[in-house]
Amino acid sequence: MRRLESSLTGCARAEHFHTVTPLLESWALSQVAGTTVFLKCENVQPAGSFKIRGIGHFCQEMAKKGCRHLVCSSGGNAGIAAAYAARKLGIPATIVLPEGTSLQVVRRLQGEGAEVQLTGKVWDEASLKAQELATRDGWVNVPPFDHPLIWEGHASLVRELKAALGTPPGALVLAVGGGGLLAGVSAGLAEVGWQHVPIIAVETQGAHCFNAAVKAGRLVTLPDITSVAKSLGAKTVAARALACVQELEIISEVVEDVQAVSAVQQFLDDERMLVEPACGAALAVIYSGLLGRLQAEGRLRPSLASVVVIVCGGNSIDGGGLQALKARLGQS
Q1: In its keyword annotation, does this UniProt entry include RNA-binding (predicted)?
Q2: Which of 1, 14, 52, 284 is most exposed by smallest CB count within 10 Å?
Q3: CATH code, domain with 77
Q4: pTM > 0.85
């Protein structure tokens, strides 16, 4: 892989908790896509995912206002980002997680010095508990995805792309959970004058709250999260993410769990990086041939200068976990 060095200054200044992540040209994915594919490697952030951009920014702003205790509900990545930011700020943190959260995530949070509470089956239930704790004096609830400061922090990713690439890509691929990354990237594209760049926003079936909302033209609450991509597991997408559909060219797509997990394995083989199924959903746009189908259907230009895939994170996965997912989905 070829790394594009960014001439960026000021995008991740010393006071920020996120780092300027590598933008790598992937030979393997470019071969599959038939065009140059760049990987924005958010999986190498100090907290393991893109979430540190927005959550780090939010936590710093709350600390300035006198916050004495941070609380966050998370399927994993947001909680790790909040715990990391809290440790850097010297503020205690309580992370509320759904009961099915992987042991390695719980250990990672405890390693960051956070108190961990396990509540409910899905993120929405953990969120209610976090909101209850946040009523205590000096406590602040860290929203995993639905807050303007979160989107403002995530927009830094696009500034880095502009600094590294110079010219806009033909398309940008990202996974959607609660919609924070989509809202932040949309804001960033508008900020750098790249609002014409199409965004392929991908979810897995069973965690497809954004796609359901796009089709209905209004927010939709899923009855349950049935996808293995638990990091995408919000039942309702942020209203701001749905509003972005009116402002930019956003193509909402849904892939099957088996495609996402297959993409995780292929990516591990191709790039020696292990990412979680939520990230596999974005990679499946390339590996499953979805990109080519969108071009054939006229929904994307037949010739794309390049495609950027946001490799969003890899906290909630290990070798054993990948094998277990493959076995569950009937993959050898």
Answers
A1: no
A2: 14
A3: 3.40.50.1100
A4: yes
